[in-house]
Amino acid sequence: MSARLADAAAAVRQPSARRRGWRLSEPPPPCAVPLPAGPGIRRIVAPNPGPMTYNGTNSWLIDWEGGVAVIDPGTEDAAHLDAIIAEAGPHLSHILITHTHSDHVAGAASLARRTGAPVAGYALDSQPGLPDWIRLRDGDRIAGLEVVHTPGHSMDHLCFARDDDVLFSGDHVMGWSTSVVPPPPHGDLVAFIDSLRRIRDRDDRLMLSAHGPAILRPRELVQNLLDHRDAREASIAAVLSSKPASLETVLGRAYFNLRPELLTPARSNLLSHLNKLQAEGRAVSDADGWRLRG
Ligand SMILES: [Zn+2]
């Protein structure tokens, strides 16, 4: 690890990350305050904690030769956007969007209006208040970062890679939780797994996600996420192995001990797994529910 990355790794431990198995956790960081996260990188946490957002959305501010870029302005919260503007000063060059879920993009139009900075993402046509935006595709470069298209959690999801092996991974890879992967057309589990393998094989040295603490061992964590999906698929197949079962029955057996607020995203993930098994010719759905083939 270079001295620069060692500095970055040390800095991103503020506030400290803890491990629960392969999952990372951290105490709630303060909102509206720039938190140093390595050379030329700081995060400002939006005030939207919750069961799907953990301690809130991380807005990343990154220095580059053309100014300061922000990845994911987060929610449209005045104090949060004020903090981004105060930290970037007059140098905000780009507003980059990892994907169009509201906890990432809702503040973009206000921030663009207030600063004049252009907004860039994969597909922003449906976003209110954004008459102009820069369309990004895999392999593009913007604000000193390489664009990496990672469909799965959403089909428009982008990661952004800095040349010193730091990857801003959005909701594609997070340390605190697995990602929700809805069935098509909103998401795609097969694409998600392909995108995870692609990110694992980049072998970045530091990963900074849209929720939760820095990931200091990205390859190991991404492999754990892949193993987790394999184990989940095996447990779903095990439930179906004896007799057909309804979606709710599989949910109750393969996802036991779930907190009530996580039932809806778990159902979405389960449907994605079942669709994948069906697409692979390994499961079918009929009047009796879901069952394995052959
Ligand atoms: Zn999110």
Bound molecules: zinc ion
Strand order of the largest sheet: 3-4-5-6-7-8-9
Overall, the morphology is elongated
H/I helix tally: 8
Which spans of ≥5 residues are poorly predicted at pLDDT below 50?
1-15
What is the CA-CA span between the terminal residues?
51 Å
CATH architecture of the largest domain: 4-Layer Sandwich
Strand content: 15-25%
Secondary-structure element pattern, one letter each:
HEEEEEEHEHHEEEEEEHEHHHEE
Total count of domains: 2
The class by helix and strand makeup works out as alpha/beta
Model description:
The protein is α/β, with parallel strands linked by helices and 294 residues long. It folds into two domains: 3-217, Metallo-beta-lactamase, Chain A (4-Layer Sandwich), CATH 3.60.15; 230-292, Winged helix-like DNA-binding domain superfamily/Winged helix DNA-binding domain (Arc Repressor Mutant, subunit A, Orthogonal Bundle), CATH 1.10.10.10. Helices cover 32% and strands 22% of the residues. The chain has eight helices and 16 strands. It has helices spanning 3-11, 78-88, 102-105, 108-115, 189-202, 218-240, 247-254, 263-279, and strands spanning 18-20, 23-25, 35-36, 41-45, 58-64, 67-71, 92-96, 119-121, 134-135, 141-142, 145-149, 158-162, 166-170, 206-209, 283-286, 289-292. Strands 3-4-5-6-7-8-9 form a seven-stranded mixed β-sheet, with helices on one face. Helix 5 packs antiparallel against helix 6 (218-240). The longest helix has 23 residues, at 218-240. Mean pLDDT is 91; it is low at 1-15.
